[in-house]
Specification:
The protein has about 100 residues and is mainly alpha-helical. The protein is about 75% helix and about 0% strand. Helix 1 (about 1-15) runs parallel beside helix 3, helix 2 packs antiparallel against helix 3 and helix 4 packs antiparallel against helix 5.
């Protein structure tokens, strides 16, 4: 599974967002408790300018692993961005 996550990271770094999403989804499907894959999906949402979805996925990653530092940073950043824009925070419910 680590190889799939590494492939997803490389794809995202190269701007291959659809490929990265497919790989992160593959990792998350194989292990629904993989908070790293869920953070990856949140980063894909960010690349697509879907800030609310990114926040929902960051919250989901934190529900899996409250100690995930990347999820903590992403959630805090997205909460701040949405608040600054005056947007309501999304529901914490999210479908992968």
């Amino acid at each position: 599974m680590i190889e799939v996550l590494l492939q997803a990271e490389r794809a995202l770094a190269m701007g291959l967002v659809d490929q990265a999403e497919r790989l992160y989804r593959q990792a998350a499907a194989a292990d629904p408790r993989n908070s790293i894959a869920v953070v990856g999906l949140a980063r894909v949402a960010l690349e697509r300018a879907d800030d609310a979805r990114a926040l929902q996925l960051a919250w989901r990653a934190l529900a899996i692993d409250p100690e995930n530092a990347a999820a903590q940073r992403l959630a805090a950043r997205m909460e701040e961005v949405l608040a600054t824009r005056g947007e309501a925070l999304p529901s914490r419910e999210v479908n992968a």
